[in-house]
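chain below, 400 aa
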Amino acid sequence: MTGIAYLIEAFAEGDLLRPRPEVRNLVDLSRSVAHLCGVEGIELSENAQGIVETIGDTDHIVLVLIDGMGMNLLERLPADSFLRRHLWEQAQTVFPSSTAVALTSLTTGEWPQDHAVTGWWTQLPALGSAATILSYTARSNNQDLLKRGIMPETTFPVESLWKRMPRDALVVVPKAIVGSVYSKYFSGGRETIGYESLAGGVDSVVKHVCESEGRTFSYLYSSRVDSEAHMYGMTRPEVQHALSEVEREIKRLAGALKDKARIVVTADHGFLDAPPPKRHTLRVNRQLQPFFRLMPSGDARVMYLYTLEWARERVRRYFEQRFDQVFMVVDTEDAIKIQLFGPTEPTDETRERLGDLVVVSSGADILEYNASRGAGRMLQLNGHHSGLTPDEMLIPLIIV
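prediction:
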């Protein structure tokens, strides 16, 4: 069975989830919030309109993103927990189900096909290789992209919707990422402050809402659930403790604001553990080197290959012989036709970054390109995402 045939069958059977604009999704949420906050010219789907009506016209909107808290992790909280009692509906994230991709969709209101961030490692033609998007560094040597003369407006061709919000906006993130290139882009240049603890972040949001004389938009981001799930795996106590902290602090936030604001809580992706036998390394050795025009980019469960045209079938056969159907190799044009990256044709920029072949995990297995000997950092982690499984693709829409 070809890679594309396997994907289509997996979608039909529900083993994998195809990103679908007709299903409520992260792009719908982004556009709904922007519309409610006064951004003009936002096209709303029927599902987005439903979110608008549920949130309603309110002077204060607080959007909370809990990195990694997909539906499968939310359901580890008690059924009578505050967050689960206020779950309005589940939604789909975008593909790849990865922080860099999903956060860019959240701030732009666009699918990956348009905003051109394609993974944790995104190929940048201006660099001639892959970049680690969130740290804004070259993947190969961690060099600052600004020092290479690669400007954010080139890397991120679509502006943040938040730039156009007429409301008094505040972005609240962990102190470690305040002032980063990506944070500045993501926030649309709006005021951004850092916190040492989630409790401190909640306090900052409460202060912003209660002391403002006009209408406000507040964004609060928490990364602890994601960090713990990556390090330890989903079922460990460290993850449960992180979830409990989120439960406690969002409940406290709602109690402090009472009826003054509407709070929307969501996630960028879920999680699926990858035990050691499901962790694989790709090294472009002497056997493969002649076939590639650029080194791979992508994420844990999706890899983009940049091959010479004459070598494409040889690369496909290599993957099929080594991995069978653990990883599916799909022509990029076929991946576009089945709308993996969004419902319409991608921009020229996105198409160039996607390369020639897309390698997609059929389940929990992960694959890391590593040019050196030994296991890469990704292979040392227990929890992963970026794939198409329901565990990774389904996220909550919690409205308080």
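The mean pLDDT is 95. The chain has two domains: 26-273+390-399, 277-384.
thats it, cya
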